[in-house]
Amino acid sequence: MNELLLGLADDELVIGWRDSEWTGIAPLLEEDVAFSSIAQNEIGHARAVYELLAEVRSGAGQAGTSAPGRAPSSLRTLDPDALAFDRPLDEYRCAPLVELRLLDWAHAIARRWLYEEADEIRISALMQDDDPRVAGLAAKINREEAYHRMHAEMWRERLADTPQFQAAVDDLWPYAAGLVPTEQREALATRIHRSLPSDKVLLGKERGVHTEQLAELWDEMTSVRRSAPAGAQW
Amino acid sequence: MVTAEQIWSAFGEIPDPEIPVVSLVDLGVIRSVDVENGHVRVEFTPTFLGCPALEVMKRALEEKVAGLGAEPEVQVIQDDSWSTDKITPAGREKLRAAGFAPPAPREAGIPKLVQLHAKAFRCPYCNSTQTKLENIFGPTPCRSLRYCESCRQPFEQFKTI
Asked: Residue A233 domain-assigned?
């Protein structure tokens, strides 16, 4: 099982849920539309990666280059929905950055911007993967993410000189560093003109640990499926 | 026994679930059709991965094949091979006539914000290029919102991917 791909899929699923929380309450009607559409797209990317992982589990060969990790027990399933919703909390591989429930606009935009910057580094690397299924899917995701990046960049420019936005980037930058593998952090720091956070600052913000907010989100996200444990047809 | 030609012709009757003026053949999402002893293998390339219509499209393809008395096998190809450039000339004209501005051609690099602001996007109603970007995102993942300053009409612009 490819831990890198599972991390990508879980990040996209969870940030999609977080972005969707702005539906109906964004400060501008156009942003209701934008955040909803971005959320839909991120969850679509999660689905595509879960499908690839499910295909790999069904015996079509190992996908991707990353180090083999311990395969979580529920990954024995071949169903992308089961991958998305039937795992216990500790088997999710998303990074703390996407888990945070951010209730102010400056933080929401700072996260979108930092996430897209980090994601571009990761996706670009996956586009060079030896497995053509991984490289092909990454190339498709990259085309779609280009529009998310434009949206993030547009807002970053608009808010760049406000103290609220600068403080939000300060708060969230260590989380963004914790989203990418160690070897990609320098590249991310250069892109966003920051210096690398210390190990002490990174504590609790790197992939591998979960925040309390994920537990609440997981509870809500999986509640419908858990309401029909025997499996229901919708 | 059903032929590939009959299958293609039947697929040309399947409307896009969200923009029914164009068919799945117009959209260019069917990459190949192989017929062998009543078994029809179809390669289907999704438009946007977040598009909720994908499952509906896949099911419609399967039903069409089954309706012709053949056994369908629809394989979803999740790579970069579909582009908005695959929309046929007839499909582009149908979109424009229905008030959706067809996508600009794909370029070598991925699109940048400056292009969405600077490029000449034509209003599908009055053909003016005096249009401005209102929102990169629209009612579906595949569309942006623009406003025509000549005829004062908002319209939906297909994104280039």
From this structure: no
Q: How many CB atoms lie within 10 A of CB A181?
A: 15
- Is A153's CB within 8 Å of B113's CB? yes
Of the candidates A121, A144, A151, which has an alpha carbon nearest to the alpha carbon of residue A48?
A: A144
Same structural domain, B103 and B53 = no
User: Which pLDDT belongs to residue A234?
Assistant: 63
Q: Shortest Cα distance from A50 to chain B (angstroms)? A: 12
Q: What's the pTM?
A: 0.92
Residues B15, B72 within the same domain: yes
A136 contacts on B by Cβ (under 8 Å): 78-81
**What digits encode the pLDDT tens for the residues A1-18?**
489 999 999 999 999 999
A141 interaction partners in chain B (CB closer than 8 Å): 49
Chain A interface residues facing chain B, Cβ-Cβ under 8 Å?
30, 33-34, 36-38, 40-45, 47-48, 51-52, 132-133, 136-137, 139-144, 146-147, 150-151, 153-154
Residue of A nearest to B161 (CA): A143
Partners of residue B161 in chain A, C-beta under 8 Å = 143-144
Cα dihedral sign for B54, A220, A94, A145? positive
Q: Provide the residue range defining the domain that includes B107.
A: 98-158
Q: Which residues of B touch A151 (CB under 8 A)?
A: 136-137
The one-letter code for the residue type at A99 is E
Structure tokens at A152: 């993030």
Render pLDDT for B20-30 as a digit per residue (tens, 0 to 9): 999 999 999 99
pLDDT at position B88 over 70: yes
ipTM for the assembly: 0.91
Q: How far apart are CA B6 and CA B17, in angstroms?
A: 22
Write out pLDDT tens, residues B30-85. Answer: 999 999 999 999 999 999 998 888 889 999 999 999 999 999 999 999 999 999 99
Interface contact flag, B49 A141, Cβ < 8 Å: yes
Distance between CA atoms of residues A47 and A31, nearest Å: 24
Mutate: best of A140, A141, A156, partner B, most B CBs <10 A: A140
CATH code of B54's domain: 3.30.300.130
**Domain range for residue A50?**
3-226
Q: What average pLDDT is seen over chain A? A: 90
